[in-house]
Design a protein that fits this description.
The complex is a heterotetramer, with two copies of chain A (about 220 residues) and two copies of chain B (about 230 residues). Chain A is α/β, with parallel strands linked by helices and about 220 residues long. Chain A is built from five helices and 13 strands. Chain A has helices at about 5-15, 30, 85-95, 130-135, 195-200; strands at about 20-25, 45, 50-55, 75-80, 100-105, 105-110, 115, 140-145, 155, 170-175, 175-180, 185-190, 205-215. In chain B, strands 1, 2, 3, 4, 8, 9, 10 and 11 form an eight-stranded mixed sheet that branches. Chain B has a three-stranded antiparallel sheet with strand order 5-7-6, with helices on one face. Chain B is built from six helices and eleven strands. In chain B, helix 5 (about 100-110) packs across helix 6. The chains are: A alpha/beta (about 220), B alpha/beta (about 230). Chains in contact: A-B, A-C, B-C, B-D, C-D.
Chain lengths: ~220, ~230, ~230, ~220
């Protein structure tokens, strides 16, 4: 059975390594913070200018002056640092952030990503997404494998306006885990109860099944 | 050398219709509430606003949009504002979208006297259209220019009468760079203090960048997404 | 994620002869005294040192010059050092002189992931030789590149175990930008504290930029020009 | 009689206007701080990263961590701000400093300045001089009119390596005050006891005597 959002987040959390500085986008990526493995210390970077983002505040302790990139009230942690937006994107651009997790509308089998605009509908803007995908050393996309009509979102090429070129390294969808290599999407894990046939049927982009493919685990 | 103004009305008195303004803040966090209210009251129009966001329908820059005072919005994310959408779709307003880090860096270089900066963000996207591209070390970079604005309106937590500013928490965001980038920088602060009350080591914006300062009043400091956790 | 080292010897253990180092400080103010002493003791040679100054004969980078450990010096002002002069005139050392603001800005863009920056300083001078020149708004600008160094050695006043740094007074100078620019940044601090002891709003260098940190010992903090005024 | 260094500084101090941010170089320029006219509030910028530089400390109160660009121990004043070298030269480059006063070895009648290197002798380096002359809106040079051998230092063109092109707006020498315009050095004031003939004899660059030329005053 396909994963729910929490399970996608849980699987992505296994990608975190001790000492990582991590930027988590809005949506499913935000949930990753709830599943950081025991013994793994990571520091969350919020691109509006906060390193060491803590959990939501207790009711009554929220501050209008302390929010994350999703405009949610958050807290600092011991060892946090606050800085301006130029420095925030400076550290992102300089490759100091080890891992960026973000959502996508479409991903192409060469690593192109589209997640900021649907022509003809509302243009909300790219926010920090273009900066993040242009600069991050390691980008994992959390997404649904298909849209509501059942159309694949893992494509030979993006149909929507591009956010960044050849930047996505890995996709964790509700159906499985896919590295992006010269072989296109390389399926290395499938969700419990999901068949390779279903993945093949729902992946429009070039798909390779890794020899070592196995069922997804949620802890190491 | 008096930089202190009585209030927002006095501080923005010479801002005319057609002005190009930078406005600090991220979402509704750290926005120059008093200056925005004074601009609404003054009724100047055809403004170009450079700001990361465009506020919400009834707060922040949204208040200027309601009154149709904005001709052009230069921002990175405007997705919290239905009136914005309506004006954009009806062709009542121009919008130029810029990646957030590029926006921040363009402000920074303006304040540092650097005319342009090469950035990776936007290469191969719509953002690159019409822009000069250079190649270094095998990577393509877009050439992005410094801003040429008339005024920067910023919000700080504390400031002294010499214009030194301290910002608080993530209300820092774009405020320091926009303060540095303004031809005329107007800072509103929650608390205006005398020189000597701020530690020189922990000033976020040196006074040389600030031309006018006033203590704001009645800060609403609205929260856009109030998220809390359960008591433990 | 342990960034804390016992002392300078441990922190610089893997620095090899031929390394390219950035060293913070202006004159003798805010220099990484412990790291320099450890480099002298370790005896690595053929170093390239990027630092605003080259110390004095018997202190700061001058100690490395005495032992002929420096192959090349990249600096803006080296006029306080007779041994430097001797080695330069005898062809024992290369020197590349860079305007101070250009040096600072090249460090900054390195830490901000920007590959090059246009600057006015040096146009029409020896500094411009061999450099690309671009024209914007009727002005000529030199294209100056980011630095590619192996280590940055910086000095701060306080730091926490996560690498966050606070610098003091004008000992700030090049330390924050070099900390940001280092591929591997080693910070020595007068006082190493636990996370939570530094106010997040007043951290000068966020820990993400600092890879190793240790509490230094026996700081001499020599004054180059002791100037005082008469009692009133 | 030609001015001494203190008098040159005293004359330059008259150029300061209330509210100015001023960068004073090493040597005679530093002395200008001692003659700031009553009622004129200026803020001194030291390019190593200090705005609002105060006087030297009292003995026993000096700190190795608080120096000026000449490496001298100094103090802060109420309203001072300290920043890194990138911001310091950023504000200089962005034209936020209203006036820069510095010394020179040579000045040419088109405003070129040479003050950083004597080939064949020791090269000390340009420090911040090239940045300052490239960026300052208003540059006044404080200098001796001739070298020790009596040779003019106000030249048709600099013989020493250039620090910056066409940037000096005014020279205050021991002999007089000279604006630099399309007419070359325009003598607008002469030092008490100095004749126009002496100035003409000792100025190698193009010299124009202003119609309004008058004896220098040291207070307004």
């Amino acid at each position: 059975m396909a994963l729910n959002k929490e399970q996608i987040a849980q699987r992505i959390a296994l990608e975190l390594k001790d000492g990582y500085y991590v930027n988590l986008g809005i949506g499913i990526p935000t949930l990753v913070a709830n599943y950081i493995p025991h013994g793994v210390n990571v520091v969350l970077q919020s691109e509006n200018g906060l390193l060491g983002m803590g959990p939501f505040p207790f009711a009554g302790e929220e501050s209008a002056d302390l929010i994350n990139a999703g405009k949610q009230t958050v807290t600092t942690l011991p060892g946090s640092a606050i800085f301006d937006s130029a420095m925030s994107f400076g550290m992102i651009r300089a490759g100091k952030v080890d891992l960026t997790v973000l959502g996508a509308m479409e991903v192409a089998d060469n690593g192109d990503i589209a997640n900021w605009k649907i022509p003809g509908k509302m243009v909300k803007g790219m926010g920090g997404a273009m900066d993040l995908v242009a600069a991050a050393k390691n980008i994992i996309v959390a997404m649904q494998h298909t849209d509501k009509a059942g159309n694949s979102k893992l494509l030979p090429q993006c149909s929507l306006p591009i956010t960044g070129l050849k930047c996505v390294k890995k996709v964790v969808s509700d159906l499985g885990v896919f590295d992006i290599t010269d072989q296109g999407f390389v399926c290395i894990e499938y969700a419990p109860g999901v068949t390779i046939e279903e993945i093949k049927a729902k992946t429009a982009g070039k798909l390779t099944i890794a020899e070592s493919v196995h069922e997804m685990k949620f802890s190491e | 050398m008096n930089k202190v103004f009585a209030n927002a009305e006095e501080a923005i008195k010479d801002i005319q219709s057609g002005a190009v303004l930078m406005l600090g803040g991220f979402g509704l966090c750290g926005i120059p509430e008093n200056c925005i209210a004074a601009l609404v009251k003054k009724g100047v129009s055809n403004l170009t606003c450079i700001s990361n966001n465009a506020g919400v329908d009834d707060f922040g820059i949204g208040l200027l949009l309601q009154k149709k005072q904005v001709k052009k919005m230069i921002a990175s994310y405007v997705g919290e504002n239905a009136e914005f959408e309506r004006q954009l779709l009806h062709g009542e307003m121009e919008v130029q979208l810029i990646p957030q880090g590029t926006l921040a860096t363009r402000c920074l270089i303006t304040g540092y006297g650097i005319p342009f900066v090469p950035v990776l963000a936007g290469v191969g996207t719509e953002v690159a259209e019409g822009k000069e591209v250079v190649v270094r070390n095998g990577h393509q970079y877009l050439i992005e220019d410094a801003f040429d604005s008339d005024y920067a309106l910023v919000k700080a937590w504390k400031g002294d009468t010499m214009g030194n500013l301290i910002v608080k928490d993530t209300a820092r965001n774009f405020n320091p760079m926009m303060a540095m980038a303004g031809k005329i920088t107007i800072a509103e602060v929650e608390e205006l203090v005398q020189p000597g009350e701020l530690d020189p080591n922990f000033v976020h914006v040196p006074g040389i960048y600030v031309h006018r300062i006033f203590q704001g009043t009645n800060y609403e400091k609205r929260i856009e997404q109030r998220t809390v956790r359960k008591p433990e």
